[in-house]
Amino acid sequence: MDGQAYTLLLGNVMHATVEAIGSFDLVLPTGLIIVLDNCHFAPTITRGVVSISHLVDNGYIHTFTNYDMHDLYLNVSSIYNVSNKRAKHALDSTHLWHCRLGHIKKKRMEKLQRDGILQPTHDESLEKCKSCITASREGASYFITFTDDFNHYGYIYLMKHKHEVFETFKVFQNEVENQLGKKIKVIRSYRGGEYLSYEFVNHMKSYGIVSQLTPPYTPQHNGVFERRNRTLLDMVLSMINLTTLPKSFWGYALEFAVHILNMVPTKKVDKTSYEICHGKAPKLSYLRV
Hints:
By secondary structure, this protein is of the alpha+beta class. 31% of the residues lie in helices and 18% in strands.
C-alpha cells in the first residue's frame, strides 16, 4: 500500500515519511514468528520499533531479562526498541538543552551559545517543540515571587494560603540580609490586600522600607513582576507536559523554573542574574531531563 501521504512523528519531534503500509513477519531468536499488521515502512528510521502494549493486547507476554540498561530516560509512549539492549535518549543536543532549561525561548539559548556556556549548533527543532506550543496559562495555586530590580535575580516561595504573604516576606527579608548582606529599600507591588495589611505596613515602616503601589488595573506599571510570573507558569506547564508526572509536582517545577531563570540571560542585564549576584558564571552541566 502506498503511504506517501503519511508521516510519523518521532520522539525528537521530527517527521519521517512513510513509503508503505502492510504486514510484516517478525522472527524472534526463539524461532517464533509474529505477524505484525498495519506496519509502517519509513526508510529514514534506522531501527525497528514495535508496540509492546499492542502485542499484549493480542495475547503475547513480554519479559525483560536483560538488566544491562543505562542512560534510561522516561518514555511517555508505549513504544519500545526491541532490538537494542540500551535505551538511549534520541533528542538532539539543542532540543535536549532546551528541555533541560525549562523550555526557555530561542533567543536565550542563542545568547548562552554566544557566551560560550552552551555549545553552538545549527538545529531548528526548537521551532517545533510540542511542549512549548501546547503550554497555556493554567496553573499554580498560591506562590509569591520577589525579583531584584538591579540584577533580576528571582526568589519564589510556595504558600498554602494568601494570608501567609507577610510571614513569607519576612523569610525572604532574612534570606537577603543574611546571605547577601543587603538591605531591602523599596517594595513595588500591586494594591492587593495582602500587601496593605496593618502588620505588613508597620513592618516596612519599622525597617525603613518604602512601599511603591501601582495604580489600580495597571499591571504594566509592574512589568517585571507580570512578565516573570507569566514566564514561570509557561515554563512549568511546558515541563509538566513533557513528562507523565502528576500535576501535584507543579511546586517542584516552579522552584526549578526560577532556578533556571536566574542562570540564563535576560534583556535587561548583560550577564546572567546568577553571575551578577554570586560573581561567577553558572554551571549548567548538572541539569538533566
